[in-house]
């Protein structure tokens, strides 16, 4: 402690502490000027060099690095920078900030300090005090102030002379880092977090949301981490499969690379097959203490009950992306509240989305699907989502058919769930939800043949009106199998006739006629009069259509850029099959 002061003490006794370095218990003086810190601020000992080693196998994140550089380049005089890098588990946040910090040491002549909150989780304000105490220890403050704000003030004072970098990893809340901004202009606080920390709460200059790598960069990163002999033995198609399994996460790539280092145990082809199992991929994608599933467990633990319900539901659904309205039906919540819950999942980087659609990353979805504690409730919520999609699809099909009816139009099923202002609005809804509808159909094949038929009925007018002829044929083949499993001759005949029309609309007349032959055979085998009448009506109409007797041709298959609201509606002379 360096002290200077002079003055008259009580009773006229003069107590003086001369300028210089003083150590001891008590000093008496009327006026004292105190400087805390090292005697020589220019000494090398006063400069912190705490950055972890530069990451190995760092893939080029050129855009993000330039964005971080630009924050410093445009920093106004007298200000400090706060940069937050956020992203899902394993996406490479720590590697990015460490790489940038290592390349930018020259910007911070006052030193580089490092904090990892992994060892301070779940401690509240006490964790922040411990972190500040650790930072102050570098400046030989062995007994920091008890108050949190006093600690922060002292830290700013000690870092006020020259620009300092504070690099914080694994922060969870804005409150954990808000008080760690150094005092000197030109300093920077750089934070890596799994959570979307609030920019206003931190007065952050920039928040970067790090996305998973694309397939090419994932494969390049994997190859860069392998020894030459292993890399030379790795077939291109196997490397591509392994990169796809990693789904753009550098942490998963590091795990795969470490497993490949033992080729006797894990030949590349065997490892690719081992990790291809969706049911066990996360458990197998682990090496020592590096485990993506455990990291996701920690994030899910921070969610409230509504967040965990929504997360489990998204994992139970068969497609990566679903609409907010559908999720609201599954959760039995108002749409606005469901959107609020989903936004909280986005804040934890467990989901991505905006207002109307949300999705899970492939590995996150596997994790959510494995939450056995919530599986029963999630399955019930999934059934409610299926009901909503089925009702909405039936309503859209009715809007597209207008008042036309046919023996192939499904007469039963869930009541209409929503009204459409026009056929075009119904067609746009179908195009937006087509992937979800098909995923629900495929998932239903494993559980419920009656539900398969319901989706096949609902999809038929939608696919036909948009010219999705090949997809319609595939769907109707599923209807054939489901009807055969149920022993329902009429439904099997109906599916065969629809398949015939789908093939005819695609220009495959021979395939269409073969489907009609199968339709008649199934109806006769079932000895079902209604099925035989249905097939006979289909044969007459289809043959007339193929002969070109005044029937309007079907719509062409859609191309990229086509208006998703464009629909093809039948003329008065044609029935809707």
TrEMBL record:
Residues 554-577 are annotated as: Disordered. This is NB-ARC domain-containing protein.
């Amino acid at each position: 402690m360096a002290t200077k002061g002079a003055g008259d003490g009580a009773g006229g006794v003069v107590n003086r502490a001369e300028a210089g370095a003083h150590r001891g218990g008590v000093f008496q003086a009327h006026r004292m000027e105190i400087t805390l810190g090292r005697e020589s601020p220019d000494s090398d000992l006063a400069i912190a060099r705490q950055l972890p080693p530069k990451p190995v196998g760092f893939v080029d994140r050129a855009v993000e690095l330039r964005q971080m550089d630009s924050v410093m380049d445009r920093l106004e005089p007298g200000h400090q920078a706060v940069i937050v890098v956020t992203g899902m588990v394993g996406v490479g946040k720590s590697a990015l900030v460490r790489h940038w910090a290592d390349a930018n040491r020259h910007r911070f002549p006052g030193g580089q300090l490092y904090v990892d909150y992994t060892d301070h989780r779940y401690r509240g304000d006490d964790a922040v005090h411990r972190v500040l105490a650790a930072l102050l220890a570098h400046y030989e403050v062995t007994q920091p102030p008890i108050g949190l704000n006093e600690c922060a003030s002292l830290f700013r004072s000690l870092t006020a002379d020259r620009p300092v970098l504070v690099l914080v990893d694994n922060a969870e809340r804005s409150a954990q880092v808000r008080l760690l901004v150094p005092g000197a202009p030109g300093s920077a606080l750089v934070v890596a977090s799994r959570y979307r920390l609030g920019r206003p709460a931190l007065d952050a200059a920039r928040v970067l949301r790090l996305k998973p790598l694309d397939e090419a960069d994932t494969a390049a990163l994997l190859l860069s981490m392998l020894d030459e002999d292993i890399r030379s033995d790795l077939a291109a198609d196997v490397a591509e499969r392994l990169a796809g399994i990693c789904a753009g996460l550098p942490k998963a790539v590091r795990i795969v690379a470490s497993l490949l280092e033992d080729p006797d145990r894990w030949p590349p082809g065997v490892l690719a097959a081992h990790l291809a199992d969706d049911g066990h991929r996360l458990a197998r994608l682990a090496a020592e203490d590096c485990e993506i599933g455990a990291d996701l467990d920690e994030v899910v633990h921070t969610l409230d009950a509504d967040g965990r319900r929504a997360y489990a539901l998204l994992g139970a659904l068969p497609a990566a992306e679903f609409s907010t309205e559908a999720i609201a039906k599954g959760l039995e919540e108002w749409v606005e509240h469901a959107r609020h819950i989903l936004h909280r999942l986005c804040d934890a980087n467990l989901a991505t989305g905006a207002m109307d659609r949300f999705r899970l990353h492939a590995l996150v979805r596997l994790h959510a699907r494995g939450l056995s504690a919530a599986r029963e409730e999630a399955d019930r919520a999934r059934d409610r989502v299926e009901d909503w999609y089925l009702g909405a699809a039936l309503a859209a099909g009715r809007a597209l058919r207008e008042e036309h009816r046919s023996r192939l139009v499904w007469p039963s099923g869930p009541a209409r769930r929503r009204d459409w202002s026009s056929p075009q609005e119904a067609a746009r809804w179908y195009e937006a939800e087509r992937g979800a509808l098909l995923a629900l159909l495929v998932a239903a094949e494993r559980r419920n043949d009656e539900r398969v038929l319901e989706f096949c009925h609902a999809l038929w007018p939608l696919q036909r009106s948009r010219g999705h002829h090949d997809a319609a044929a595939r769907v109707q083949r599923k209807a054939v199998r489901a009807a055969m499993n149920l022993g329902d001759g009429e439904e099997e005949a109906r599916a065969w006739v629809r398949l015939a029309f789908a093939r005819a609309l695609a220009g495959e007349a021979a395939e269409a006629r073969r489907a009609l032959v199968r339709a008649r055979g199934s109806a006769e085998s079932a000895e079902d009069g209604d099925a035989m009448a249905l097939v006979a009506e289909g044969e007459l109409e289809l043959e007339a259509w193929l002969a070109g007797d005044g029937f309007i041709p079907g719509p062409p298959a859609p191309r990229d850029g086509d208006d998703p609201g464009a629909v093809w509606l039948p003329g008065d002379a044609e029935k809707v099959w």
